[in-house]
Amino acid sequence: MKEGSKVINVREMIAQNKSKKSMNTLLEKVIPKGLLLIAIISILTTIGIVFTLLFETFEFFKRVPFLDFFTGTVLKPLGNNAEFGVLPLLTGTIISSTIAMLVAIPVGLMSAIFLSEYASDRVRRILKPILEILAGIPTIVYGFFALTFVTPLLRSIFPGLEPTNILSPGIVMGIMIIPMVASLSEDAMSSVPNSMREGALGLGSTKLEVTRKVVIPAAMSGIIASFVLGISRAIGETMIVTIASGSSKNFTFDISQSMQTMTAYIVEVTGGDAPAGSTIYYSLYAVAMTLFAFTLIMNLLAQYISRKFKEEY
Fold this sequence. Notes:
Blueprint: H1 2-63, H2 66-71, E1 75-76, E2 83-84, H3 87-118, H4 121-136, H5 139-157, H6 167-190, H7 194-202, H8 207-218, H9 220-235, H10 239-244, H11 262-270, H12 279-308
Antiparallel strand pairs: 1-2
Helix pairs in contact: 1-12, 3-6, 3-9, 4-6, 5-6, 6-9, 7-8, 9-12, 11-12
């Protein structure tokens, strides 16, 4: 009986193994196809977005000359004599992004250097999550913070500052981008082998010299990539500039004045009374296509820099 039961048990085990193998074989065939389907959906979604922008943008340029759009300094989308120059929006976007990076780059890089080179493991575990909390705050909260706190504070220092201006949202965007720059730069510096630090210290270098002459050059590709990605984030920011910079379409380089960015213009048009099929409606897509081109160039630049200056250890 025992031998018979053993034979039965062996047969059952063989049958179970066969069923498991068939199930694993089925999963091995199904899972790659499922992953391929998900990848195809992502690609088709991107292609659909691009074609939608292109189709509507071409319709806009049938009504407004290409050169008038990219060289015009006046943007008056409403009225009988409407003008659609994108330079005021480009200027506002570039100025606000520049102010943001002037805040985010030094603060974020110094934070990354401290966390990577000077902070103990305990301090790093405490400070880094606190720093990254800034990335989880909704941008509309940042917008109201810029409007109700930063702008009055700046106006008390600079009385000539307008109630809505490009300086305040630029500074707050920089604060918002600090976690991105700090986290990516710190990851790049932490990936530098300790043997390089120890070798430099063994040759008599100070901690600051090791950081400045060894760690930062070795992590330069990741650091610059974090800067470029931060610029892309600033260019695409919407709510902060919509709330705090106003809707004046001024072509000026005076940061104390109200200006409008491309994202803020898109919000204004989509939230307004622009009828479908009108020129102002199609201008929405032309501006969105310009913004898409800007962010695409920034992302491609970040990838190029990462590959160009990447160090293999």
